[in-house]
Prior knowledge:
The chain has 763 residues and is of the alpha+beta class. The chain contains 22 helices and 29 strands. Helix 10 packs across helix 22 and helix 17 runs antiparallel to helix 19. It is globular.
Amino acid sequence: MTRITPTTTLIVSEPIDFRRLEAHYRLIRYELPVDLHWKAKKDSNAYGQMHNSLRDQLDCPYKAFKYDRLDGGIPKWVVYALYPRDATPATIKVEFLSIAPLSSKEVPFDHLDLHLLLKLLQIAYVRGDQVRRFIGQDLCYVHAKKEGNSHICLQIDLKEDIRMQPGDIEREFKVIGQARLFRPVSYPTSTVFPYTYFGRKITHGKVYFLHLKKSEVETCKQTKEPLYAIRTRPGKRTTLVYHDQRHIEESVGKLLYDFIQDFIAFLARYRIMCRSKERNFTEFVPPKGQAELPLTLLNPIAVFDNRLNKARSLQDYLDIFTQFLPELHFTPVEDLLQVGTQSIFVIQDYNKEDFEQGGILEGQVDPYASLYRKYPQLPKQSINVNLNKQTDTSQEAYLDYPLPRPNDKNFKLKLDVALAQLYLKDVICYERSGQQRLPLLPTQFAFIRKDSYFSRQSAYETLLYFENDTLHFLDLRDHIQQDRRDELLARMGIDWEAMYEDLLRKYRKKDDQDERKDLSSYDIIVGPGLFIELEDLNERVLYDYSEIIKRQAAVDMLVPIEEFKLLSHYDVIRKSSYLSASQLSLLDLLRGQVLPKNDNEAESLKFYLQLEEYDAFLGNLQQSYQTISFNMLSQNEHMEQIRSIFDIQPDKNGQYNRRQFKGYYQKRGWFSSDKAKDVHMYGGIWYDDYHCYMVGSLQSMNQQQPRAHLIRRFNVYQGADHFDIRPLLLATSVQFVRLNQYTVYPYAFHLIDLYVENILRFR
């Protein structure tokens, strides 16, 4: 199966005609004081002060740029301002740095690099009369939703693809959305504002914000209007879901979709041609039944009790585990020095966060951390059996928790995830057979990951390779093991230093003096004659939101009741096995003179008579309504009657739904699902001819989708002529890294993470 789908990348043609731009705007370039670089390094508030100063003096789109080389030579920190053609450019001062006016000059549009021009036009577009969109500093936002006294807005950035060059006829720009929290703040006590202040505005019921000038801040203070600033909450990320079927307008996907559609039209006014990038994806269907872990190889599983509250016996939990997973054998263990080559399943009744500042167990010793420090050599996996939440409770109440119920699906899921992790740690720490223990593992490759996730001070750089059916790891922070890496890769026909130089050139980590700055992170795959970077493209698929909204609205449209009648459409909506209307008539079943001779005749006649009764029911409704919507028809007492007519039964949870009833109309071509695959690309594994891929869900689309599936790329630096993407896609199809979901990377990278987390961190 193949599909063409638009993405969040814009393809922009290099403009050749600037006459329309010149008719509307003039471009002025201001040079900021040289001292600003030094000031910004020493004072974190300098950037906000600079923008407050610019905002007070500029009433037009502007963009600050640190690395301007328009004059050649050393990069300068400048501001480009987009004035209306008939406006007089302002004289600008940044008085907290200097009282001298900024040097300025008019710049022809064809002298400005495309990425700066697009960002200026993005600001001009957002400054239009569309509510919810607004500017802060020189960034663009869209209001998404209110959350308590605060508001979450989406910051929309244009980021040029790193591969693009100034001479390219077409340039690619990533459209990136990041959630930002606008929180109420106190009025400033100083005349020098440390950061940007915003005022809330409501137009036609829609909320947006204005970046306030100094005089406007003072007015808010006098009138007691609230002030807002962009702030984070300690210990909590500010997020928006990518797609929410019930709150479409708050979804990141819908906000990006609207921006892209409108911005393309806006650029067309100035003869700048732009389109959304489309990818031609092919579905990768992994074989069934090959991606499960043989957990019975862990038997017997040693269980260590590391709870704070041991009032309930450990055996109670072993019994619960056995009820969930009868094929596994759980045995208690007290002395971890005597376990030999067993892996340890640790039960606890707390989370790491409970012991941190503000946590409910703050000030106590974390038994989890103590255990891991004392026995770093043992593969261990913990499971939290405390089902209580720490909010609004005491320590005593928090640690007074019930046993998990035998039918608790959430706890069963947690248990499955924990045991899968224990299994993988067991394979890594005890160097078990990879072929016997790990399904779908691409052993023909070596994997290298550099990542600072486990340490803020320095990044771990680790290599995984397979030899003699065993996993081997190299800690590449060690120069001796770096030499072993070079030897290993050389046997595969790969020169590490040459390939690393190519990576540095791609990411522009070398300056004009040939000085290089090492990459802080990367994921590399090496095979015989193959060198591959697994690259995050900062790109997501776009759903067809116009059609989704159209389908959602269709069920609320008023339609003449006569058009809802179904009997005349019997042959369209019946099951394929049922007799046709003409067959029922020929057999004299419709007149009741002949009784059905078999089950199929009986079921066919039953459905035909149900449609007769349903149409009669609609006929009675016509006495009260001439028109009705599907939602009105399928609610309350109407739906009770419809359930009775069509003998609609509750689901396994005892709930009624209207899926069966709606299905009759969908067979007529009405009310197509707003979650159907033709309007979204949510499930499965997909790839294209450029070695790009995305990993979706195994399940049907949920009402709320926290994040869209990023598009990644196997960027082949060497060996493109014989690269086969399928073994690596196969290694993303396992379902034990993210239980009952595909993993987003070939899962060898997860094995590296486990090795770092459980072994390297304790060396």
